[in-house]
Amino acid sequence: MSNMSDVIEAYIKRYLEAEEEIELKRNEMAVHFQCVPSQINYVINTRFTTERGYTVESKRGGGGYIRILKVRLNTHSQLVDMLLALIEDKEITENIATDITCRLCQEEVVTEAEAKLMMVTLSQNFHEDKMQNNAVRKHYMQVFLEHLKYRT
């Protein structure tokens, strides 16, 4: 049986298949799934990230909402450019590297075999220091993306 986060994610993704943008009420979702509102926040914050191809905007308060937009780009080059800009000032953890690699595979920029090779490289611990690992991971991700940008 799936955990609650997986169920909530699947529910939201079903709506996003039909609409590019959806608006949710956090409290209504919590009642629907019989969970606390923070569970909805957790799913939104971890499963609908920019790296995974989503833009999230929220407004708190009584009339508050959470708006989720699936980002669709016209070309692979646009996707790669967007990802390069996204990681420019960001620490690349193993989770972020996984999200980016999965997105490249879903958008058919890389094959499944290429994605697996990327993940083997990006999941390595290069140093004892976590920050150094993330810096090396970022460098490799930038190299991969630059290569993909000019691939035909």
Explain this structure to me?
With about 150 residues, the protein is mainly α. The protein has two domains: about 5-70, Phenylalanyl-tRNA Synthetase, Chain B, domain 1 (2-Layer Sandwich), CATH 3.30.56.130; about 75-150. The chain has seven helices and three strands, in the order αβααββαααα. Strands 1-3-2 form a three-stranded antiparallel sheet. Strand 2 and strand 3 (about 65-70) form a beta hairpin. It is globular and about 45 Å long. It starts with a helix and ends with a helix. The model has no long low-confidence stretch (mean pLDDT about 90). Keywords: Coiled coil, DNA-binding, Repressor, Transcription, Transcription regulation. Pfam families: CtsR (PF05848), CtsR_C (PF17727). One of its GO terms (biological process) is regulation of DNA-templated transcription. Belongs to the CtsR family.
Summarize the structure.
With 152 residues, the protein is mainly alpha-helical. Helix content is 59%, strand content 11%.
Key descriptive features of the protein:
Phenylalanyl-tRNA Synthetase, Chain B, domain 1, globular, 11% strand, mainly alpha, DNA binding, 152 residues, 3 strands, 2 domains, 59% helix, 3-stranded antiparallel sheet, CtsR
